[in-house]
Amino acid sequence: MALKNQYLIDLLETVKKRNQGEPEFIQAVTEVLETLEPVAEKRQDLIDAGVFERIVEPERQIMFRVPWVDDNGKVRVNRGFRVQFNSAIGPYKGGIRLHPSVYLGIIKFLGFEQVFKNSLTTLPMGGGKGGSDFDPKGKSDGEVMRFCQSFMTELSKHIGADTDVPAGDIGTGAREIGFMFGQYKRLRNEFTGVLTGKGLTYGGSLTRTEATGYGLCYFTNEMLQANGKSFEGQTVVISGSGNVAIYATEKAVQYGAKVVALSDSNGYIHDPDGIELDIVKQIKEVERGRIKEYCDRTSHKNVTYTEGCKGIWTIKCDIALPCATQNEIDGESAEILVKNGTYCVSEGANMPSTPEAIETYLSNGILYGPAKAANAGGVATSGLEMSQNSERLSWTFEEVDAKLHNIMKDIFKACDEAAKEYGMEGNYMAGANIAGFLKVAEAMKAQGCV
Q1: In what order do the strands lie in the sheet with 75-86?
Q2: Running DSSP on this structure, what letter comes out for residue 313?
């Protein structure tokens, strides 16, 4: 899809010049602008108000040094980030990613995506993202605590329950959130809902752990049903083996599907008899181990483990749910999915498909659930955690799950209706971008040139 609108072509050129060396951010902006072309044609008022120029530029970018001391007494230094992208419809909201690959461009792409994703949830949340190139893997609890305390010492100056509410992401689980929350409380002397993904004993929400994976399946189920299909009896391949992948597996199985593959950053397992999820949970959630250990623990005889991750998409399946990381499905892998008869790809990770992969899905009529819609269940439930914190109340698992289910239904409906309204029926990526953009754009226009 090449842009034809001269105004958007010029804007994209400006973005490329301003953000050189940040391919993920440029990729995310390009995808959004391409699908917003019909909106630009129809809505001169938004062009006149400078909404398009402003929405691709973060309101604030914060970078800082994070010094900490390892168990040997050696000083280590990492770099911390928080990109506060857009606050037109609510406080900035978005996760903290701890991974060696983190640099400003990754955080900006994630923050930009978050603006639209949060808008789609129907909750009053702006978009932001943060993180560090710190790697929690192989670190002791003491080292992780000292890093998190140092990271929060600087971050605490820029966040707050009504300003910016971070959450977890890759590398930032319950342990890390706990350490960060403790340090924030100590520095600010206040107990507020400043972070989501907290433990249940100190303001966390039931269902938050399951939310992204469950939400992915709720959205995918709506998309399947709208097209006369269902999970029942289908073979599913899921990449990743963290929170999102584990609970997507759990919900897909509840819907009657058979999940036959999971992966981590080292490689993937293929279990044609269906993954035994309790074993995966023990390895990943309790022991923080590697996925290959599954082969030694399962009673299933036909399990195989393969080093490297790319080959997971060569496994024959009806439905593919990429839940690992950005750009994990390229054009070549997408072609293999098509050849193998996969008819649905729905994204649990952020931007896991390259532009070439997306082009392959759309040109071959694959049902495609884009990340900013399909994986919005996590941030939606973070929004519900914020509501519970504000009310000083806790809802039951069933209450939160029911609210999550309804939000994911509403997100699918919004994507479906926006795609139809702008002449792109069945293109849920375009629908998600348009529906998410319009809500933020109207708020930006109403609030003037800020």
Answers
A1: 60-69, 75-86, 126-132, 92-98, 164-167
A2: G
Residue 143 phi, psi dihedral angles, 5° rounding: -65, -45
Ramachandran angles phi, psi of 116, nearest 5°: -75, -40
- Cα–Cα distance measured from residue 403 to residue 173, given in angstroms and rounded to the nearest whole number: 23
Task: Kindly report, residue by residue over 209-235, the tens digit of the pLDDT.
Answer: 999 999 999 999 999 999 999 999 999
Residue 33 and residue 67 in one domain: no
pLDDT-above-70 percentage for the chain: 100
pLDDT digits (tens, 9 = 90+) for 40-97: 999 999 999 999 999 999 999 999 999 999 999 999 999 999 999 999 999 999 999 9
**Side chain identity, residue 80:** G
Mode of pairing for the β-strands spanning 304-307 and 267-270: antiparallel
User: How far is the C-alpha of 3 from the C-alpha of 45, rounded, in Å?
Assistant: 20
Q: Are residues 232 and 176 in the same domain?
A: no
Helix, strand, or coil (residue 346): strand
| Active site positions, annotated | 129
Can you give the residue range of the structural domain that contains 47?
Answer: 6-55
**Do 326 and 226 have their domain in common?**
yes
